[in-house]
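Batch manifest, entry 17 of 40.
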Amino acid sequence: MKYIIFTILCFLSLNSVKAQMDKITGTPLTDLPNIFNQNEFTVDIMDDIGVDPLFNVYVEKLKSSIQKNYEWFLEYSKKIKPGKSLEYHPNFGLSESEYKEFLGMTGGVELLSSGKEKLKIVKNDSIIQLTGINKLKALSNIKIDLKNNQVFYKSYTLPFKQNIHVDDADNGFKSEWKGYSWSFEDPNAPEEFDLTNIESLNIKVVKLTIGQLNKNGKVYMKLEERIMENGVKTIDIQVPVIF
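Output type: structure tokens
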């Protein structure tokens, strides 16, 4: 009898922990106040990576060869199929076996923390305001509008984009995860541009992603701001954190 009672209590306790950890339910306007439920968080800045040293060697070889054969690469890259890698070509600067090994390594990249910072939160019934310093300074431009499910960043308004469900652990977190994203894109589908005329590209992409990792229940957040003017990247801000 004592064993049965103990088992039931353990089961209830585990369910309680799971309920507390499940901060992504599919309803962002309900979830966000629960995610930002403190006035201050100590966050890990996830802008470092752990990889096999050989991976960086292959990357440098690829970069060098692509720079030498840039026009060819732009044309060749049109052959890529959605969800697939480019087929091997000697112009990559790698042997076929090296390229195969390189592709195998891309799934082995793991995001690591480069340090910790304080992230402050001020919220009321309708707005969540973030404040950070140093590497988190860009996050101070973020206001989350709870009434309209949108994000304000600098002069941009980021409407809600989508629910995210990552169903495998083949990513930098080594975990399945789910979450939400808000984004501003000008033009709306920059990936459809003709990259052979890169000198004329003008692209603005601002995106906020908030999710939760399955393996440990931690919250992941990433701010991205990328601006290209006449083919030249003028702003490239990426702030990924976990808390």
